[in-house]
Amino acid sequence: MKKIGILLLTILVATLLAGIYGALHDQITFTISSEYFTIFKFEQFGFLDWGNNNPRLTTALIGFLATWWVGFYIGIVQGLVGLIHKTPRRMFKYVFNSILITLGIAVLFGVFGGIIEILTGEADPICFPYEIHNCKNFFIVGSIHNYGYLGGGIGAIVGLVYQIYQKKACLTAIVYRY
């Protein structure tokens, strides 16, 4: 029964952590290109009128809305895989470590995406159909976002492998003990 509680807690924490990550992430990327949000994301999320009156708050809201669901699914998968662990204590430890691994890899990929765009992106990209004053920064933010999602997916897989490896390591230790 405790493992089911940990599974539910995992889903809740992963969902909230992903949403908070998205809100904070978008505050940072807003600083790089406010136009990415005020011209592109506000329209995409239907916040164009309200958003331009409250750009930072709207950006945080969009960040939360764009990422909470990723954490929800990651929490379900990581939590279900976590049921393989023998005790609730081990399940809790390995599941939450795997979520932190996922988050860390998502952050690293986002940074990597920004660096890649800075180094290899066009010096004067075209932002058709939008009227953007700083297209370079607009594309940097887009790259950070896209690579961050890719990193979240790869991080989730690495987190699953981590959990399975930990289970195997525990089994090997038990076998060698006897």
Structure description:
With 178 residues, the protein is mostly helical. It has one domain (2-177). It is built from six helices and no strands. The chain has helices spanning 2-32, 34-44, 48-53, 55-82, 88-120, 135-177. Helix 1 runs parallel beside helix 5 and helix 4 (55-82) crosses helix 5. The longest helix has 43 residues, at 135-177. The chain starts with a helix and ends with a helix. The relative contact order is 0.15. The model has no long low-confidence stretch (mean pLDDT 91).
Determine the fraction of residues in helical runs and give it as a percent range.
over 70%
Structural class from helices and strands?
mainly alpha
- Report the uncertain regions: none
Strands, total number: 0
For the record, the count of structural domains works out to 1
Strand residues, percent:
under 5%
What would the average pLDDT be, to the nearest integer? 91
Number of H/I helices? 6
Largest sheet: none
- Supply Rg: 20 Å
